[in-house]
Amino acid sequence: MASVVGAPYLPFLEGRREPAPDNFRWRLGVRPLDLDDWIERGPHADATIADKARLNKEHSDTVFAVLDDVNPEAIEVSTALIEHLRRRWPDRYGDAVLDPSLHPLDAVARLVPEDLVLMVERNGELVFGGGSVCSPNRWDLRSKLGQTMAEVHAPVAQLNEQLETPIDRFFDRLTPERSFWRLGWGVTDSAALYAPVDGTAAPRPINPTPDQHVLRVERETLRRFPETNCILFTIRTYVTAIAEVTEDRTVASRLADAVAALPDDVLVYKDLETTATVIVEELRKNVDKS
């Protein structure tokens, strides 16, 4: 799916303004989740769900992968998820069932617009058990199988250095009685939700201009389950043209500040090392015109 799908969240407006890259900090930013809001329909949900069938057919090795022994965890989370859907939206999901020909995690993921990522406990560690990820943001699902949280996050500049211990503590304290959600964001040169690293996505523009960039926001929920002690991440991705997002002067100014605050290694990780300066200049020019 390669269309703009709205920006219901602007997470770069939260928290204090970062005046310089030297002060950059990743934020865990978790907040309590009302389970009625576990899954988010929102704009273009049906189109996103419909596109999953195509992606699973054309890119099955890219969008779905699991460890061999995660069936108990997958059954627990898929059962809970389909029960939630039937209760939350009975008109749409009242008769919904899982396709028995598919892995349970794959089957339930095809019913919702979110990507699903499963973390499981093996040998006393929480490891990446697999997922259905139809909106990858230039990362490789299959390469994460069996990795710890720190190993999954290793490519993200400065993240483990700043947050490895807080993240481990958070998951140690996460119980089935309390679930959470958080937001992440980035600026990228492609409006495609499906943006893997294996070359199967649409070609990226050469020397993209500021108006070719989009704001990509990910809403994640984090929930632990009682029977298998696994953790399910749901990830809903929204993509919106920067020009649309920054029609408001305050929003444009804060996004410019947020991009300008990214240090060099984070800019490289986010593929913005050659375009960040121009994007910031354009945003601030628009603010000055307002």
Low-confidence stretches: none
Overall strand count? 7
Percent helix among the residues?
25-40%
Distance between the termini: 33 Å
Sheet/helix structural class: alpha+beta
Count of DSSP H/I helices:
11
Mean pLDDT: 90
Task: Please state the overall shape, judged from the principal axes of the Cα atoms.
Answer: globular
Spatial strand arrangement across the major sheet: 1-5-6-7-3-4-2
**What is the string of helix and strand elements?**
EHHEHHHEEHHEEEHHHH
Over the alpha carbons, how many angstroms does the gyration radius reach?
Answer: 19 Å
Largest sheet: 7 strands, antiparallel
Strand content: 15-25%
Structure description:
- 35% of the residues lie in helices and 18% in strands.
- The protein is globular and about 55 Å long.
- It has helices at residues 45-58, 60-63, 71-88, 90-93, 104-109, 149-153, 159-173, 242-245, 249-260, 264-269, 276-289, and strands spanning 31-32, 64-66, 115-122, 125-132, 180-188, 214-224, 231-241.
- Strand 3 (115-122) and strand 4 form a beta hairpin.
- The two termini are 33 Å apart.
- The chain has eleven helices and seven strands.
- It has a seven-stranded antiparallel sheet with strand order 1-5-6-7-3-4-2.
- With 290 residues, it is of the alpha+beta class.
What is the element layout, followed by pairings?
Blueprint: E1 31-32, H1 45-58, H2 60-63, E2 64-66, H3 71-88, H4 90-93, H5 104-109, E3 115-122, E4 125-132, H6 149-153, H7 159-173, E5 180-188, E6 214-224, E7 231-241, H8 242-245, H9 249-260, H10 264-269, H11 276-289
Antiparallel strand pairs: 1-5, 2-4, 3-4, 3-7, 5-6, 6-7
